[in-house]
Amino acid sequence: xxxxxxxxxxxxxxxxxxxxxTPLTRRGLRRSELHLLIGTLxxxxxxxxxxxxxxxxxxxxxxxxxxxxxxxxSLDTGMTRGEVLRRMGDPDENRSDEETRGPGATALVYRASxxxxxxxxxxxxxxx
Length: 128
Fold this sequence. Notes:
Elements: H1 2-19, H2 31-50, H3 81-88, E1 93-96, H4 98-101, E2 105-110, E3 115-120, E4 123-127
């Protein structure tokens, strides 16, 4: 919002400078030209303050990650699947661990927080 106001101010000063009826001087600037110069400096300062010059971060993987609402540190053993989903949101991956851990075992993978929630009968058994 502030950059838009600064640009609008600069445009107003530019129109004022062009439409000014004061005669041109041999040396120096007319008052309207001085105002336009000061406005240009203000717009440049505002623009430099608003622009982020850091390089864009490279993507870590080709799989898009969802941003969780909470971290895995906020989970406790014994919580229900519903409580986990309310705190963490939908998982990036929902795996069945029945082959390795037995019937009723699932794993909820959250890539953004880099953790896996291991459930047994829809209750948190442990968090990796």
